[in-house]
Amino acid sequence: xxxxxxxxxxxxxxxxxxxxxxxxxxxxxxxxxxxxxxxxxxxxxxxxxxxxxxxxxxxxxxxxxxxxxxxxxxxxxxxxxx
Length: 82
Hints:
- The chain is 49% helix and 0% strand.
- By secondary structure, it is an all-alpha fold.
- It is globular, with a radius of gyration of 13 Å.
């Protein structure tokens, strides 16, 4: 089993300044990205694995949305760009 999330280095919530402050980012990294196996519980990770699309930046690892709802939003964003 991988120790950290394979998507951490390119995750937009850490790269694009989506989070309110650095402490919030470090908390998410500790709780989801850096714990062995825990990243698989991240809603961003789950949705991206199922739809292989860009997940909206506003979706957090502990989102209250279901994976299906996240995918629907991502696909809606793709449709709007067309």
